[in-house]
């Protein structure tokens, strides 16, 4: 055999065998156990091709690189007790995205009771998912110093550890020690922990529920589906005025009687806005042709007509006692005293570069109602003071508008001949909205607070302090804000919506101020809810939409009666002290 090994035939045989081994793929080589130095008897192969060498008894392995198995003697079990619970259980933040409106969706069925139940469920879920804090008693045989050193240090937010490694206690609590506590979980008949039971048994604030269905629905044919018009208003005498096409109809709430106030079909004109005086039966009607009519609803008689009040349609009207303010597509705001015989405005205000689509006076028409808010299609909000007041520049979003913002910066006095001169500049001008501002509402509970709502590209409700021109807060509603109105019986705000970037649209939402939590969300309209008015008692709201319906909702509770102490008369001699 030695001669055959050293012969030329043996040398060629060994060389061919060596070349065959070098060309073979590495995955076909047997894996050698580094501990025992031998190949395993059988190893499964991941190769889908038929194993032709299996018949020769040569095992194959799919592993490329040989792995060395090490035995540590014990294993560490990760403990999340001292870690970041929100990171460990993949809990998202409560706030969510702040600016993107596409991710913001108003739930179609939401009220205060459901929101409270959702918050309670979330709290219980966190309580049950969060691991309980370790409470290991210190053994008497173990020094306290050693036990303190074995405690896991608390994790800091900068480290953001997902796992905390520690060893189990050498002397766990015995059942006899644990069962000595009467509040132990072993005695509990509840499937939840003691913390969760405490949360469930704690008293909760009683919340009111809002009826989700309207108690009355009226047909309103020819109700225009136009964002820039204001065709519905509710008077202090409990009469609802609605502009339908070229007619104005009056609906009396206490007997549901309907009467026709006017019809402008003969003059080929269309109603574009209606507005009641704060106290009384006088109704102002604006038209697409720029005419302004004043009616007495009690007698259904026309009192006055201002021909050519504006050069284009009048989309917004607002009363301040005997002063009627009108905003038009000609970008002007005119102020008229209806007691004067002249038809010319005593004051003109120019602060918008596009159509004026919203007007609201502060207060209820009393002596303190001196500020007028106007919103325009130029995304601006202007605050006017007809008294000619000027304020210093304050920190915040708003700033006093001088001659550059309006036509002029001079202050005009009251009179019939001042209409040809320059109008007043706005006291404040807010530029934060990114869409047309039609929705305006003054807070009746806090002086100087104004709520404004933006259109489709804005979707925000912003709150302003008109005393110093600062923005107090803002709310991303996720949909077009068409109208705003404050509650008279509670500090809540109603908003109506139209186009939305989400599936929920055409809603009526009630918000709690200043927390801005949603109290209720009302649905039912199939088109944009463009019109909104409130009953004089403050309990009912009426909404109008392009679906040509008027819906009446019981949105607010009745006003609590306050038993005021009657003033004692000085003529009552029986109560006088002698």
TrEMBL record:
Residues 395-412 have a biased composition (Gly residues). Residues 1-107, 128-195, 392-426 are annotated as: Disordered. Residues 17-26, 67-84 have a biased composition (Basic and acidic residues). WD repeats lie at residues 349-394, 522-554. Pfam families: WD40_CDC20-Fz. One of its GO terms (cellular component) is anaphase-promoting complex. Keywords: Cell cycle, Repeat, WD repeat. Residues 218-553 form the CDC20/Fizzy WD40 domain. One of its GO terms (molecular function) is anaphase-promoting complex binding. One of its GO terms (biological process) is positive regulation of anaphase-promoting complex-dependent catabolic process. Residues 40-58 have a biased composition (Polar residues). Coiled coil: none annotated. Belongs to the WD repeat CDC20/Fizzy family. This is Anaphase-promoting complex subunit 4 WD40 domain containing protein. It comes from Lyophyllum shimeji.
